[in-house]
TrEMBL record:
Gene3D superfamilies: Acyl-CoA dehydrogenase/oxidase, N-terminal domain (1.10.540.10), Butyryl-CoA Dehydrogenase, subunit A, domain 2 (2.40.110.10), Butyryl-CoA Dehydrogenase, subunit A, domain 3 (1.20.140.10). It comes from Sporormia fimetaria CBS 119925. GO terms for molecular function: acyl-CoA dehydrogenase activity; flavin adenine dinucleotide binding. This is Acyl-CoA dehydrogenase-like protein. Residues 261-416 form the Acyl-CoA dehydrogenase/oxidase C-terminal domain.
Length: 432
């Protein structure tokens, strides 16, 4: 049955279920979250994004506002919220038991739509899961109250100046002191999102020999010997991309995440959610761009016609619309599948698929950004006014292409994973 439309009526500016069309995935609680987030974003974020972009930072008080609204809890947890976390905040009255992967999708979609502030949470959404999934209870009990209340912030530090895609060869070392009570960390990490304002660095370090087996995950508090400096990147300063240096940083052994040698696997398990979440952001980025381009095409006249009356312009919208809705449908299918699977089965069966979904997200963004920019004409290259959101989206497209796994690397991974599953299926069939 169709329901009441919500949000913009411009074609492809909202997901199809917002327009009133039926969907098997969204229930009343998803609509409740969507309505809450839209209102909250329009009150607390949208009016200030231009000011924050000009200042080059979001004020710390905004992070506290997000904590107060209960946003940090689902952002740290992803698709499943531990029930005891209800004490740190509940968004829109939706309990941890009710929360699912589609709530996660709606939350990110609306945060992205509100603008600017979404980049504040990247560190939390990629840095918290190893703590939640693999750390000791003592460490969780110490750190989660700090980071879920917004008092402290966390980020994920894996990439180094000399190794990104090739995580197996990272060189930052963590050596145990002779008394066995501490690790001494030395090395460098680069392009660490949110690092400038983080208090904790969830860091992949080498505790053993070469290769994946020698890698461990260590939570490193900001302390003597840990230095950060900004790395200016194309999308601007709000995500606080950072170069981190560790020089004889002393870390208690209790800050090791799980067992030594598990760091590579812990990094990989994280990727399903990270790549999905990039798709969530890409989708809303595309919808914002097509919304602004449509508004312009309906009113701008050239050669005695509105732009939308030009078949070439309509051709662009048709091609953008079909790609955005196809990406939405694929993303929802994967959210649904991950919802039904354990994390381990999800990583085994869908690791390659989420890699390819992330690639597709970047490709759709590239296409939509370029077509919308062209429809806007000069306004598409202008940082203020009606083309400003498209200019910013166009500039930000590489952020969907390289971080979270570079396009070329992920395409190859997608095929290798598909072949692995094919061989497993052949083996299972041969036993029948
Ligand atoms: C804005 C931004 C934010 C980031 N945030 C974080 C963060 O918070 N935490 C973190 O740990 N990291 C972060 N990163 C790092 C990011 O994950 C890496 O940049 C990415 O994994 C690519 O690694 P690299 O830059 O070392 O490129 P390289 O690994 O050197 O690869 C360069 C290029 O070589 C080609 N290539 C390399 N290997 C292969 C292969 N096997 N098959 C085919 N082609 C290949 C690809 O075209 C690839 O793009 C961020 C990066 C950016 C730019």
């Amino acid at each position: 049955m169709a329901s009441a439309p919500f949000g913009s009526t411009l074609p492809w500016s909202e997901p199809s279920w917002y327009t009133g069309r039926p969907s098997p995935y969204y229930k009343e609680s998803h609509r409740k979250l969507r309505d809450f987030m839209r209102k909250w974003g329009e009150e607390h974020i949208a009016p200030y994004t231009e000011e924050w972009s000009e200042a080059g930072a979001v004020p710390p008080s905004m992070y506290q506002e997000c904590a107060k609204a209960g946003l940090l809890v689902p952002i740290a947890a992803g698709k499943k919220i531990p029930s005891e976390w209800a004490r740190y905040g509940i968004v829109a009255g939706i309990s941890p038991e009710e929360w699912d992967g589609f709530h996660d999708m709606v939350l990110w979609d609306e945060l992205m739509r509100a603008g600017g502030v979404a980049s504040l949470f990247i560190g939390l959404t990629v840095g918290a899961p190893p703590l939640l999934k693999f750390a000791s209870k003592q460490l969780q009990d110490k750190i989660f109250p700090e980071i879920l209340s917004g008092e402290k912030r966390i980020c994920l530090a894996v990439t180094e100046p000399s190794c990104g895609s090739d995580v197996r060869n990272l060189t930052t070392t963590a050596e145990k002191t002779p008394d066995g009570k501490h690790y001494i960390v030395n090395g460098e990490k680069k392009w660490i999102t949110n690092g400038m304002f983080s208090d904790y660095f969830m860091t992949a370090v080498r505790t053993g020999g070469p290769g994946a087996e020698g890698i461990s995950m260590l939570l490193i508090p900001r302390s003597e010997g840990l230095r950060t400096r900004p790395v200016p990147v194309i999308a601007g300063p709000l995500s606080a991309t950072t170069y981190v240096t560790f020089e004889d940083v002393k870390v208690p052994v209790e800050y090791l995440i799980g067992a030594e040698g598990n760091g590579f696997k812990q990094t990989m398990v994280n990727f399903n959610h990270e790549r999905l979440w990039i798709a969530f952001q890409a989708l809303r980025g595309c919808r914002i761009a097509i919304h602004d381009a449509f508004q312009w095409a309906l009113k701008r006249e050239a050669f005695e016609k509105k732009l939308i009356e030009q078949p070439v312009v309509r051709y662009k919208f048709g091609n953008m619309g079909r790609q955005i809705d196809a990406l939405q449908a694929w993303t929802e299918q994967i959210v649904y599948e991950l919802e039904q699977l354990s994390d381990t089965d999800g990583a085994r069966l869908l690791g390659g698929t989420t890699a390819l979904l992330k690639v597709e997200s970047g490709m759709v963004c590239k296409y939509v950004a370029e077509e919308c920019l062209k429809i806007m004409g000069g306004l598409g290259l202008t940082k203020t006014g009606q083309g400003a959101r498209i200019e910013s989206f166009y500039r930000g497209v590489p952020s969907y292409v390289v971080p979270g796994g570079s396009e070329d690397v992920l395409i190859d991974l997608g095929v290798r994973e598909a072949l692995k599953l094919m061989r497993q299926a052949e083996k299972a069939k041969s036993k029948l």
